[in-house]
Amino acid sequence: MKNRLEELRKSRSLRQDELGEALGVSRQTVISIEKGKYNPSITLAFKIARFFGTSIEEIFIYEGDEDEM
Amino acid sequence: MKCKSMKYNVISTLFVMLLFSGALFAGFYFQKNGGASSSYFFGGATGLLLVAIANSIRILRMKKNPKYRKEQETAQKDERLVSLRNRSTAVAFFVLVISCAVLSIISAIKGDMDKASDFSLVICIGTAVHFISYLILSHKE
Lengths: 69, 141
Prior knowledge:
The structure holds 2 protein chains of 2 kinds. By secondary structure, chain A is mainly α. Chain A has a single domain, classed as lambda repressor-like DNA-binding domains (434 Repressor (Amino-terminal Domain)). Helices cover about 55% and strands about 5% of the residues of chain A. Chain B has 2 domains: about 1-75; about 80-140. By secondary structure, chain B is an all-alpha fold. Classes of the chains: A mainly alpha, B mainly alpha.
């Protein structure tokens, strides 16, 4: 799953640790999400979307399951 | 004490201290009654004491340093870290079961049936607890 978290964070001039603090997660988790290594839970995805004032679909792009391809 | 992680640390330290007292008591009991296993209990008690000391240091640091306390709180709640902890626990359990199975077979081949049955018992208890907790959790969610 791709995401636009890094782009949105940079557009707000936020550091990874600042975003992590706002979302209640560690800086490492923000890094992992940005790199696409970790897919957040639906709760965290909603928190992220609410924080940036947008919808989940605007941030996370579902490209289908790897097994499906 | 408003902080949840602090509460959790204090409770876990008290629990470790309780286990430490139990292990120490068992060690002295077996030493008095001529049991050869007293050294195992003393070894376990030393390990538990070290855990309690490490926990106490962490509690003191959390009390003195609010930034560290916040970091610890985040680390405890962070969903990625929680999932990593759960996965590593599952791997540790799997390795424990496999190790016990191998040791049980080796003990049986060597003719030490007491040890073989002890290792088998650990596997049985572990898998039974796993199955029961799975059933309980699947009913909850």
